[in-house]
Design brief:
Strand order of the largest sheet: 2-3-1-4-5
Number of helices: 14
Order of helices and strands: HEHEHHEEHHHHHHEHHHH
Strand content: 5-15%
Structural class: alpha/beta
Number of strands: 5
Helix content: 40-55%
């Protein structure tokens, strides 16, 4: 356990479609509800609300989390540390597109479905800067441009220095940089680094019925890669950071991971049984009530 990191407030920079909803729930299980501030769908509105909290009250915040650009630690009067999860850009964008198709609450849903926008057009037309090195943008802090009038970077205009800045931020400000394809390893490191207790989970907000990369046209995959060259490099860098941190744990880490995964599998099975038991109880109750008044 790192007592120095434990003493700091935590900022979870949630990159969309990168297992963040699952990690959000784990975070909520480890901190008092009153000590958590969540950046909501209205990012600017949430940031303004946070800014307007008196400094003495902001000092009590132990967790700031949500879809946000890097840099909000500057609004925290107390020492902070960040965590995040990155995902392979191709997988993330495919997942994002299919999430939009199936989520009427998403701000792009009506446009994408009404216009029958294909994945290829979704990526290439510039309707969302998130499809243009979205992870690098957030971790370099350039998303703050649209929020505060600074460092605006339009679609297709990302430059190499953004990648350099994102890497520096990961090195200098993040306790753990995780990746989705090693979620359990990332989580176990966060547990150790931040002295979390309850880290068992059920995967949440998984985009259903989406095709995998092999089912997508090669031309579309190449467009995604071309538009996300910085994100591809950043993802590789994040993998390297994670591997280095795991290596520092020594040989015992592999056994700790195996033990955690075994216990988490039991936890997930138990909760699925509870869920189906509640459904069955509800169904039986309706049958009984229906018979009573028939």
């Amino acid at each position: 356990m790192n007592n120095h990191e434990k003493a700091k407030s935590l900022i979870f920079l949630h990159i969309p479609k990168s297992a963040g909803t699952t990690l959000n729930k784990i975070i909520e299980n480890n901190y008092d509800k009153e000590a958590i501030f969540t950046i909501g769908i209205d990012t600017q509105g949430s940031i303004n609300k946070f800014k307007n909290i008196p400094e003495l009250e902001r000092k009590k915040i132990k967790v700031l989390k949500g879809h946000m650009p890097f840099g909000l630690h500057e609004l925290m009067p107390q020492p902070c540390t960040y965590i995040t999860l990155l995902r392979h850009p191709v997988e993330r964008i495919i997942s994002s597109y299919h999430y939009i198709l199936r989520s009427p609450v998403h701000y792009l849903h009506n446009y994408v479905t009404t216009k029958q926008i294909s994945l290829e057009n979704f990526v290439s037309t510039g309707m969302s800067t998130d499809t243009d090195n979205g992870q690098t943008r957030r971790l370099a802090g350039v998303s703050a441009g649209k929020l505060s009038g600074e460092r605006i970077v339009d679609f297709g205009e990302c430059y190499p220095e953004l990648l350099t800045q994102a890497k520096e931020n990961l090195i200098n400000h993040f306790s753990v940089v995780g990746v989705v394809d090693k979620f359990d390893e990332s989580l176990l490191l966060m547990k150790k680094e931040l002295a979390w207790n309850n880290c068992y989970y059920i995967s949440r907000n998984i985009t259903k019925h989406k095709p995998n990369e092999r089912q997508i046209k090669k031309e579309t995959i190449e467009i995604i890669k071309e538009n996300n060259q910085l994100d591809l490099q950043l993802y590789t860098f994040a993998q390297e950071l994670l591997s280095q941190k795991i290596e520092k744990q020594g040989n015992r880490f592999a056994q700790e991971l195996k033990n955690f995964q075994a216990k988490n599998n039991l936890y997930a099975r138990f909760n699925r049984l509870k869920y189906w038991s509640r459904l069955e109880a509800s169904r039986l109750k309706k049958l009984v009530m229906g018979a009573k008044y028939s």
